[in-house]
Amino acid sequence: MRHSLPDPDWPSAQEAAGSRLFSPLRVGSFTARTRAWVPAMVPWRAAEDGSVTPEVLAWYGRFAEGRPGVLVVEATGIRDIASGPLLRIGHERYLPGLRRLVETVRERSEGRTRLLIQLIDFLRIRRRPSRERFLGEFLEITDAHRRPGEDEAAVRERLLAASDVELRRLLSPREWEALEFGARERVTDTHLPHIAELPRILPPLFADAADRARRAGFDGVELHYAHAYTMASFLSRTNTREDGYGGSLEGRLRLPLEVYAAVRERVGHDYTVGCRLLGDEVIEGGSRIEDAVAYARALAAAGMDFLSISKGGKFEDARRPRVGEAAYPYTGPSGHECMPTVRIAAPGPFGRNLPLARSIRRAVRGDGRRTPIVAAGGIGSFALAEKALERGDCDLVAAARQSLADPDWWRKMELGRGCEVRRCEYTNYCEGLDQRHKEVTCRLWDRDWSRPDASGGISRSRDGRRRLLPPPWTP
Ligand SMILES: Cc1cc2nc3c(=O)[nH]c(=O)nc-3n(C[C@H](O)[C@H](O)[C@H](O)COP(=O)(O)O)c2cc1C
Ligand code: SF4
Fold first, then answer.
1. Does 393 sit in the ligand 1 pocket, CB within 6 Å?
2. Which atom of ligand 2 is nearest to the CA of 443?
3. Rounded-to-10 torsion of CA 81, 84, 85, 87
4. Model pLDDT, residue 179
5. Which of 27, 74, 261, 404 is surrounded by the fewest CB atoms within 10 Å?
6. How far is 193 from 121, CA to CA, in rounded Å?
């Protein structure tokens, strides 16, 4: 079943001017000019050392031309450790590049877009090894594998000769997972000192990163408490840590609240600090909307300036990767809920996750708090955005893929030229590129060579086959 795109009901310029979508809203220390929000999207354009490249500047500059109320820079690592071409903010040396990024967005949006940066911590995940390397090299041989009198080489040889059925019996569930999916650390691996220590090391790391973001000129930070990453794993119902940072609801919330407190103490009260969290993890034994409502109420009570609601995107149900590749958290059922396509089950992708935002917003409002709630998931039309705001599902409307398909779509709507919007087809070609760590582009424009970039040329992907930026649009 393929769901067709809903009627966009594009507004006239006058209708846009009087709409909820294009009305301002206070978000912590700043006022967003409109309720239009571009959420974090990793485009794979950072340098190998995590610094800002000219391609990163061009990318965010292009989004800024659409003049959304708020633009969130991709998940940016808070540690000073090698993590491939993912943006980083874990050291002072990243500041000059990040400052240029802020300046670029200010210039290209003519000061109309407020800029946030998403701060992330993630645990180690290894690529899926070949059977030979895993059994011959990586697997730590213990007494559980050994037969009396066998030395290590003999054990490895026997395991290598075993059938899959036998091997599954001989390995522990974690060892089998490491073989089939690549080894993945969890917040519950408290036998590992660096995991046990997370509650001690993460608050200052997040605080330092937020302080750098402030000094770089960002209007605020979004703490990444969603999807497959460390902070979401602390919040998860699957977090059974027994050191006071897991188990009960209070235990699971403890580190997210301590991280927030450390950030707030560092950046002060006149700076926007919010977070992204999951309205539903969509995995067996994971947090559901009831948990998310409780998390959101506690985070809002602590003083978060906004709560951005996402869904799913977990490793637990990810598809088995090919040998040499890492598991990707958007490939299983929870991942499909995070970035729903036109092929997803009823009721289809459009505004699919709005009920989660609605429940959370209602509970937060019930506590007497006005914390802005951001909703995402298949919102790519004026009609749906306006309806979500009117119904009280959310206060700000986030559109990731529609903004990637056409970063000017907000501006086109504001100018009453919605019929010129290049509409996202929600078939996830872009997500496939992300999965393979290739520069993210959109199939609707990456082979359109008709118009050069603003620079005069056309910048191309590493393989030379795709253009890296949507063709320019002149109002
Ligand atoms: C290529 C790509 C990269 C993404 N990277 C991030 C990210 O860094 N952080 C995040 O919170 N969400 C990320 N997302 C999820 C989006 O922010 C958004 O929640 C999701 O795509 C659903 O919204 P949409 O239907 O408007 O696309 C990414 C999505 C895409 C397509
Ligand atoms: S590649 Fe497809 S899903 Fe991604 S933004 Fe473009 S049209 Fe939308």
1. no
2. 1
3. -30
4. 97
5. 261
6. 17
| CB of 117 sitting under 6 A from ligand 1 | no
Retrieve residue 293's tokens: 């409502």
Q: Give the pLDDT score at 1.
A: 82
Over residues 382-397, the mean pLDDT reads 98
Centre a 10 Å sphere on the Cβ of residue 133 and count the other Cβ atoms it contains.
Answer: 12
Tokens 């708020």 sit at which residue?
70
Please provide the distance, in angstroms rounded to a whole number, between the alpha carbons at the two ends of the chain: 37
| Cα–Cα dist 326/181, whole Å | 7
What confidence tens digit (pLDDT) does each residue in 121-170 have? Answer: 999 999 999 999 999 999 999 999 999 999 999 999 999 999 999 999 99
CB of 252 closer than 8 Å to CB of 236: yes
Of all atoms in ligand 2, which is nearest to the CA of residue 425? 7
Q: Do 459 and 449 meet the contact criterion of CB atoms below 8 Å apart? A: no
Cα 234 from Cα 398, distance rounded (Å) = 25
| CA 277 to ligand 1 center in whole angstroms | 13
- Which residue segments constitute the domains of the chain, with CATH numbers given? 13-126+188-435 (3.20.20.70), 131-181 (no CATH)
Tokens 């188990």, located at residue: 247
- Which ligand 2 atom sits nearest the alpha carbon of residue 445? 6
Give the predicted TM-score (pTM) of the model. 0.97
**pLDDT of 211-251, one tens digit each?**
999 999 999 999 999 999 999 999 999 999 999 999 999 99
CB within 8 Å of 362: residues ≥ 6 apart: 392
Residue of 231, 339, 406, 431 best suited for mutating to test ligand 1, as the one with most atoms within 8 Å of CB? 339
Ligand 2 pocket: which residues have CB below 6 Å? Answer: 401, 404-405, 424-430, 442-444
* Centroid of ligand 2 to alpha carbon of 428 (angstroms): 5
Which atom in ligand 1 lies closest to the alpha carbon of residue 378?
25
For residue range 6-53, list pLDDT tens digits in order.
999 999 999 999 999 999 999 999 999 999 999 999 999 999 999 999
